[in-house]
Write a structure and sequence with these properties.
This protein is an all-alpha fold. It has three helices and no strands. The two termini are 16 Å apart.
C-alpha cells in the first residue's frame, strides 16, 4: 500500500505550526486534513 505524498509546502506549514506556534501534532493534522501519524514520520 502506497502512502500519500505531501507537498513541501504542507510539510513546512505543519512543522512551523508545531515548532513556532506550539501546537500539537494532533491539532496541526486536524487543521491540515492529514493524519497525525504522517506528522510523526
Amino acid at each position: 500500500m502506497k502512502g500519500i505524498r505531501y507537498t513541501d509546502e504542507i510539510k513546512a506549514e505543519a512543522l512551523k505550526q508545531m515548532t513556532e506556534r506550539g501546537h500539537s501534532a494532533v491539532e496541526v493534522a486536524g487543521r491540515l486534513g492529514i493524519t497525525d501519524k504522517s506528522l510523526y514520520r
